[in-house]
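worker-03 picked up job from queue 'complexes'. Input manifest follows; two sequence lines, order preserved.
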Amino acid sequence: MLLQQLINGITLGATYALATVGFSLVYGVLELANFANGAFYILGAYFAMVLYASMGMNFAVSLALALAGTGILGAAMDAGLLRPIRSKGGTRTSMMISTLGVGTAITNLIIVLFGSETKRFPDAFGGKRLEFASAVVTYKQLFTILLCIVVMVVLSILVYRTKLGRAMRAISQNPVAARLMGIDTNTVILLTFFIGTMCAALSGTVVSMYLGSLDTTMYSSVNIKMFASAILGGVGSLPGAVLGGMILGMLETFVSGYISTAYKDVFSFAILILVLLFRPAGLLGQRTIKKV
Amino acid sequence: MALLEVKDLHVSYGAIKAVRGVSFSVEKGEIITIIGANGAGKSTILNTLAGVVKPASGEILLHKDGHEPENVFGAPSHRIVKKGIVLSPEGRQVFPRMTVRENLQLGSYVLGKDEDREKNMEWAFSLFPILKARLNQLGGTLSGGEQQMLAIARALQANPEILMLDEPSLGLAPIVVRDIFELFKEINKSGVTILLVEQNARMALGISDRGYVLENGKIVMTGTGKQLADDEKVRAAYLGG
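worker-03 finished. Artifact:
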C-alpha cells in the first residue's frame, strides 16, 4: 500500500512538475505569470489526441508534432500580443491579463471544435505494467517519471550551460543591461515562450494519457495546481518547480489514500498558505532585494 | 571622415524633448567628453547611440575603416553592439546574481566562435587586477568601485571600436576616480575611441582631446579639452569657479 501510494504520488508529482517548469521558465525570464500555460497544456493534449487517437499516427510522431505546434502558438502569443505591450512600455499586469484572455479563447475554441464532453486518450504502451513487491507500476507511469527527469536535465543544461540560457538569465536580472550586451532580447523571450509552451503541451499530453482521458475543465485545475507548485517551490526557480510539483503530488496522493479524496485540496492549499506565511519566496526561491 | 557623426539628433520621451538637434563628431582614436548639468540630455544621447532609446529624427553615421558610411539611426541595440559601439551604462548595471566571470562572458556575447575571448578577459584583468581575485564572486556582492570596474571591463569584452562611458566616476572615492581615468587613457592608447559623459568635468576634460557642452538638449559650446577647461563660463558653471 505505502509503496503503491509512493509510486502514484511520484507520478502525479512528475506531471505537476512538468507543467510547472514551463510556467517557471517564463516567469524566471519575464517575471510574468503566464496563465495561458494551462490552456497550452490542454491544447497540446488535444493536438496529440487528434493525431494519435483519431488519425492513428505513431505516438512519438504525434507527440513531437503536438509539441512543435503548441510551441509555435506560444511563441506567436508572445510576438503578436505580449511584445507590443512590452515595446509600448505596458505593465506586467496588462501582459498577465492578456495571457488570461488567450487561455480563455483557446479553451473555448477547443469546446467549439471538439465539444465539452470528455475524450478518451488511449495508452500508447497498451496497458503494460511491472509488478514487484506488492506494487504495480504501469509503463505510462514510468514514462511520465522518466520524461520529467529528462526534461529537468535538458532544461538545466539549457539554462545554466548554454549561451541562450545565459542570455535568459541576463534578461531576468537586468533587461536593459542585457540589451547593452548585444542580446536580442525579443528573440530570446520568443524562444523562452516556445520552450515553456512545449513543456506545457508535453505535460498535458502525458497527463491525459496517464488519466486515460481529457477535457477542457483541466484548464482551470491545472492552472491552479501549476501556480501552487510554483509558489511552493519558489516562483521562477526550476528545481523549485520540481520540488513544488512533487510535494503537491505526494500530498494529494497520500491524503486521498489514507484520509479521503475530498480533503486532498484542503491539505494542498493549507500547505501553500503556510509557505506563503512563513517563506513567501517559496522553499527554493531566492529572496530578491530590489534597490529603489 | 569622422568615425562617428551625429547630425541634428532629436530624442523625446513622450511630450518631453530631451535632445533637441544635437550634432557632433568623434574621430578615430579620440577621447571626447560631453559635459552638462543634470537633465541636459547627456545620458539620453549615449543611450540613443547604444540603441536602447529610440530617437525621433536625425542621422547617426558610423564610418569604420574600409567600410562605406552607414546610418545606424534607430538600429536595435544588438546590431549596434555588433558594429562596435558599446556602452558602459550609468549606475554600473552589473548582473547581480551572476559571477564576475559570467558578467564578463556576457560582455563578449556578440563575438563569433573563433574570436579570442580569453585574450579580452586577460586584458581586463591586467587593467583591473581586483576582478581576477573576485572572479567567482557574485556581481551584486562587489563594492561600488569594483562594480564600476566590472562594468567597464565587461564593455571591453565586445572588442569595442567606440567605448561609451556614462558617469563612470559616480559614487567613487576620489582616489579611485583618478586611477580609473588613468586607465581610460591606457584603453584609448590601445586603439579604442572613447566617448565620455561626466559630472566630474575637470577630470574628464583633463584627459579629453575635445569636448562638447550640452545645455537643455542643445550643444552650446565646443573646443579642445584644455580650451573648455580654461573657459570662464565653463569654469563658472561646471568646474566650481
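worker-03 released lock.
Chain B has two domains: 4-84+160-238, 94-159.
The mean pLDDT of chain B is 94.
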